[in-house]
Amino acid sequence: MSLNTQIEQLHKDKNSLSSELRDRKNEIETLNKRLDISQKLNEELKQKIESEKQAAATLHNADLQASQKELQKAKAQAKATLDNVYSQLEEVKNSRDQSEMTIKMVNNKVERILENASHYFETEFPSAENLISFLSQPPPQKSQYPQQQPNQCQPQLPPPPAVACTEQIQASLEKKLRHERARSKALSTAKEELESTVEKLKREIQEIKLQNQQEINNLNNKTKQMIEDQALIDAEKKHTIAKLQAKVDALSNKLIMKRKESNARQANTAQRETKTYKQEMAHPTQTAVSTTFGISSSSSDDKVEQRNCAASELLASQNAELQAKLCSQKQRCDELQGQLQKSQQHCNDLDLALSRAKNDFSALSIVHQDTMSELEMMRKALHEKESVKDRADKKLMRREFQAQKALAQNLAAQVDSQKEQLNEISLANQQALHTIDTQHTTILDLKQEIAQSNDTIQKLRDELISTQAELDNKQEITPDQLIPSSAWSCSAFSSELNTSINMIARNPSLQVSSKIQNVYKIIAKYYDDIIAERDATIESAYNENQKASNAINQFLINLSIALELEPITFNDFMVKHSETKVIDTIKEIRTCHTDLKRKNEQLLQGIDVVNRAFNICALNNDGTCNISEIETQINCFKCQHSTAADQLAKRTKKYRELASALKAHKKKAGTEAEDANALIRRLKSQVEDLQKQNEELSQGSQKMKWELQTAKAKLTDQQQAHEEITEELKERIETLEKDAAYEKAKAEAEYNAHIQTATVQNVNNSDAISQYVDQISMLKKSLEMQKATIKEKEGEITRLAVGNENIQHDDEAKYASERKQLVSGYEKAVAELRAQCEAHRADVEKMAKALAATEKKLKQAKESILQLKKDKLKSDNDFKSQQEQYERQKKLAETASKVAILNAQTDFNSKLDEERAKIEEERRRLYNTIADSFKQFTVTHETLNEKSFKQTIFKARDEISRLTAMDAAVRRIVNADRYQKTDDAVAQAVLKIA
């Protein structure tokens, strides 16, 4: 009976263990299903995240490209406006210089006319108005009287024809003066307009400079805000790291407690085994039952130990793999550090090259300013010089100019040497600061790497703990729990799309994967339709735009043909700003029209002045003049003017010599100006190259800023996702721990109850054995009888045991295959997750490195900006001091040159007066000698002048011609030879007659 009871208990234990095994298998299957579902969800979420990232990246790139295009357009427009402003300034300056030159030439001409008039009329004319008033007076009428005796005073003769010449000269001079006055007025008005335009352009330049300064200030404020935001983000990161460290410490404490509990359990099991062994030794009769029970318990313990060993081996292999990955990552970090150091050295070299280029540019700008100042000095000196100067004065001025130029060059060389020394000192300071910053950055990078390695180790430990807990106890997760009904709808989608998605989600015949695929298809179809509609609208708008552009193209082509220009298209009009050509041509046409009108008016005024001055002819009924009469009288005036031109020929020779000297001087100045212009062009080209480099650097900094912003956004998203995942894992771990503790308590209570009943039964059996030892002998016979029945029953038991063993082997084979499949699937999922985690880590590391590099670049840019500001302030101060010195030297040179010019003018005027006096004395001597020699033909009552001199010469000529004719007639009568005198021939003839 006891054996039957024990066998029944064994069967019950076996059934309970098999039920437990089935439950565990079911739990493992549910856990594997949950794992598969979670892996699929993770993969889908990752795909969604990647697609969203790609879409965001494309949008970001499109925004960047659009912003860069807008910036380039704005810069091109600003450059075009600046170029136009500078070209207009240059044109204004050139026109102003030309107007000043013309005004000075006109003034010189007026002064010459006044001087010549004063010499000719022997009266002084302080201004042109006095000369005009003098010339406008009618000539005095002289009375004619008969000739009296030689002792009495004779009456004046009628005015000779020279008076008419003087009147004509007066009229021509008046005409020239009026013309020059009108021209001077027009030039003065043009000068005022040019000055107003110059002032406007200067104001525009100042406004542009103020706008640029405001933009620079805004950018500086933005950089400060970015630095503050970065500091806040770093503080938040540190706070989260501290929280995670606290959580890790708590979990490590829990692990230690669980290990202690497991050690205590093992000790209890060892004590139980020793107790059972003692009981078996004490009661050898119950060996069969105890052996069977021990075999079953030992088999269950062996299975549990095998499972634990397999799990521990897996964990150890995973730990070794993770350690190997850590080592490889450390090696990679070392390689990246070396690459970082190389890139930093390259950046330092580039900074040094940039600073050198800036120093060269500053030196060239100083040289350019010096050349410009010298050119201005030359221009002013040339404008202030008069047309007539002595060669000695020119040599003195050149010597003074060369001496001043040498002094300026020496000063510039000293300034350049001092600037080079300052630049070398600043470069040394920058290098020292840069080395300190690089050391600080390397220390910070090493600290960050250590912290990252610690974080990775702690994360790996957490993952090991979480995987062990998930393997120990997992609950079934239904598809509704994984993907609730609310997850199939989104507020961002439209109502039609949400309804179609809900229809698929409510369909129970479909699986989760097929539902998700159908949902993706619906979303893709919906958005494809939207994109097709958008493309259609864009195409229609493009067609309309093309029609408008074609119409504008036709208009522009017709306009360019009408204006006789190259054909202009819409693209040229919008991009190349070719509208300036059209505007310039229209302006030129208008200016030509106004010039022609003005010239016509001037010609009409000139004809009126000629008519009034010379009373040539009156106007016709149509308002026109008889040009033939004007031409005839002008020809008469030309004949009369030719006599005066012969007298002025001698004076023009001197003026030509002076003009040739002036031309040579102008040629030299032109060559020097061309050299200066070549230098200016070179400097402009260098400035443009540096501006391009600056624009490229600014574009690079903007790109890095955009990448920083995207990296920050990604970091925040990843942090939020990590926090959500950690919270979910904590909740799962807590629920699993509670369930495991509850099941453990249950199992321990059941095992204790079984052990107590078994011990009680053993005690009762031992008492019964001691009581019924006597009865055994009596019952041996019955036992022998029952042995046959027992053998039969044992045969049946062995049959049942073999069947059970076969069933168990089949179950174990199935369990092993299922387990292998689950383990392989789980390992694949874990490997994929690890690969994804490693990819994420690599991305995070890249982002961190990019952040560090951008921060370094920002620091370097700030340092360079500060250094540039300091250099700018120093250069401004130096420039101001040099400008003040140059202005002082300029004022001194101007005063010295003015004094020298005044002295030269006074000397030249005195010399001119002396020469004129000498010429007049020589003329009077000639007149006196001729008058003494031709006393017979001179008029005594008239003064000696050109008129009386001409009259005496004409009279003497007539008398000489009369005498030569008489002599020739006498020689013919006498038949004188060719070389014989008339007196000898007459004497011979008289002798022959006598």
UniProtKB/TrEMBL annotation:
Residues 184-261, 408-477, 666-746, 823-871 form a coiled coil. GO terms for molecular function: chromatin binding. Keywords: Coiled coil. The keyword Phosphoprotein does not apply. GO terms for biological process: mitotic chromosome condensation. Residues 1-21, 134-161, 261-283 are annotated as: Disordered. Residues 9-21, 272-281 have a biased composition (Basic and acidic residues). GO terms for cellular component: chromatin; condensed chromosome; condensin complex. The keyword Coiled coil applies. Residues 142-155 have a biased composition (Low complexity). This is Uncharacterized protein. It comes from Tritrichomonas foetus.
